[in-house]
Amino acid sequence: MPKRGQKHRPEPAGSRPLVISNEDLHSRGRLIGFVAAALGVLLYLNTVGHQYTLDDFSSIKGNWIVKQGLTAESVGLILTTEYRHGAWNSPGSLYRPIPLIMFAAEWQIAPDDPRLGRVINILLYGLTGWLLWITLRRVLIRQPLALVAATVLLFMAHPIHTEVVANTKSRDEILSFLFGISALYSVWRYLDGTHKGWLVSFVFLYALALFSKESAITLIAVFPITIWFFRDEDFKTILKIGMLMILPAALYLMIRHAILAAQSGPEIYSALDTVYMATDDALERIATAFMMCGYYLKALLFPHPLVSEMGYPQVTPVGFTDPRAVAGFAAMLGLGSVGLAGLRRKRAISYAVLFFLCTFSLFSNLFIIIGTSYGERLLYLPSLGSTMALVLCLAHLTGMTDTRSLWRGKHVTVFWSVFGLALVLFAVRTVTRNKDWYNSGTLYAADLPHAPNSAKLNFHNGIEVIKKGMVEETGMVKDTSWVMAAIASYTKAIQLYPEHDPDAYHARGQAWLRLGRYELAEPDLRKAIEQRKSYGEAYSNLGVIRFHQKEYQEAEVLFREAIHYDSKLVDAHRNLGAVLATQRRFPEAIMQWEQGLEHEPFNATL
After folding, report:
1. d(CA 248, CA 255)
2. Cβ neighbour number for residue 216 with a 10 Å cutoff
3. Is 133 within 8 Å of 153 (Cβ atoms)?
4. How far apart, in whole angstroms, are the C-alpha atoms of residue 439 and residue 442?
5. Would you say 438 and 53 are in contact if contact means Cβ atoms under 8 Å apart?
6. Per the CB 3.0–4.6 Å rule, which of 63, 80, 90, 459 could disulfide with 493?
7. How far is the C-alpha of 199 from the C-alpha of 254, rounded, in Å?
8. For 91, which DSSP code?
């Protein structure tokens, strides 16, 4: 009590205790975590019945290793090969064994049934909401529970996450985030009570985050920054946590390097993969990266329209004379200034900005060129920082200068009204966007109007359109109009990027082949081989033409060439066996069919 005549001074916000008992934490806002989890589940319930979509094919349905189920052989291959080894016949640059092991287990339980994977994604996302709440309410103990709750709920409803939850392949994003947040929770429990068991848990969970997706490496910067902003720890403690994170990171990087180095060479990108390959000018690459940063920031602030692909030449390299590059540069410079300006004073808004910048750094293409120019899934972890910043800005703009009064006061109605409207709009956009992710066909049809000049999107749209004109079981044409529509999509893709697009040439050639137009199919298939000498499927389809023309010896040469470049190409083994059987070379034919069965043991034709 103040003495008589002495004024009572209210306790400043920054002087609240940093350590809070487990009982107190449990009693304060304990339902919010369950609300966040329920919100995450409810928003994505309409994806349970969806089919395989987009990258699900290379990660699950078209991955022969995953389709072996959870066996010693499949797990061994997953642990010792590149992420897409089971689907690609070319070097890759990813190493993410944990999600692939989960996919193999799910395939064994429910083979060729995407529903199990969808349900697991949804439940893991819901778990993320609960875990994010119990973690942030510890980390942001100086902030009111209301502000923390607003951050978590807005994050869970953000439509930018639809590609992560609605696409089973993006389990890597969900797991990496989940393990990363769990590691941060463990750090805080250790710092609160110094129990070394939490320290072991922290290192182990961080390792799991890395082995789920390599982008978790950015957390090495995020965790020390978080401790600096929200705890009064000495530099020695902060350094200790950072050094402990380096141990699993070094282990992961060494294993990853050894596995990728064992491939025939590095992954080769084209402009179709990433727009930065369309220029040799370093300054243009930087300007283009800033332009794309602007697109990313726009998607975070105003997530409409959403697109799964925004590739070349929908976007092309630009210089700093382009207003979009200048705007992107100004925005990133402004964010950097905000982050650094509040570093010493430990302002929450500065932390939110630095969180975003650190976790987004790998995907910005400013420091290293990655295999994509744009992907909404890449904003999953960074969006936590942007969401926190939005909530803090809203609190400031609505007059909540004293954030302790968020639950009451004359400005509370304005804050919660604006926030509630944003939450509802985000939720509605999430549910409606989920419908586009039903399968690859619906996704490309929805996205193409927003990126009509993306060569890659036109190509993939053709792949889905042609399926409507085919009998899946036999591969026979049932409606030529759909095949012709697919050919039109392939043609547009080639026109948009004629310099080096072997996949589009091959797909168009294969479509002409299905229609029996060999004179149109062969030039396209030859063009595909000209641009990619190791194109096994193109050799195989040329062999099919020769087989129908009864030129069996040349067909045999082409099928063997296909197998030489892609020993896992089941169609080539099957077709070579057919050629050999036609020539009554039955033991050799049986050997080819048996080799095909090694990769597709349930192939009925084989």
Report:
1. 11
2. 28
3. no
4. 6
5. yes
6. 459
7. 23
8. -
Cα of first residue to Cα of last residue in the chain, in angstroms, is 88
Please give the Cα distance from 368 to 17 (Å, whole number): 41
CA separation for the pair 198, 200 (Å, rounded) = 5
Tens-place pLDDT, residues 505-529 = 999 999 999 999 999 999 999 999 9
Alpha helix segments (H runs only) across 158-271: 162-165, 171-193, 196-212, 219-230, 235-261
**Is 513 strand, coil or helix?**
helix
Distance between CA 324 and CA 327 in Å, rounded? 5
pTM of this prediction exceeds 0.85: yes
Q: How far is CA 558 from CA 233, 536, 562, 581, in A?
A: 68, 9, 6, 16
Give the C-alpha separation, 121 to 56, whole Å: 13
Q: CA torsion angle for 292, 298, 304, 308 (degrees, to 10)?
A: 30
Average pLDDT over the chain, rounded to whole?
91
Q: How many angstroms separate the CA atoms of 465 and 496, rounded?
A: 19
d(CA 552, CA 579): 6
3-state secondary structure of 249: helix
Report how far residue 253's alpha carbon sits from residue 294's, in angstroms, rounded to the nearest whole number.
31
In angstroms, the Cα distances linking 209 to 33, 98, 135, 203, 245 are: 22, 9, 16, 10, 11
The percent of residues above 90 in pLDDT, for the chain, comes to 83
Distance CA 385, CA 162 (A): 18
Quick one: how many helices (H) and strands (E) in the chain? 26, 2
Q: What is the pLDDT of residues 135-151, one digit of tens each?
A: 999 999 888 888 899 99
DSSP summary character for residue 60: I
Give backbone dihedrals phi and psi of 301, rounded to 5 degrees, phi first.
Answer: -85, -35
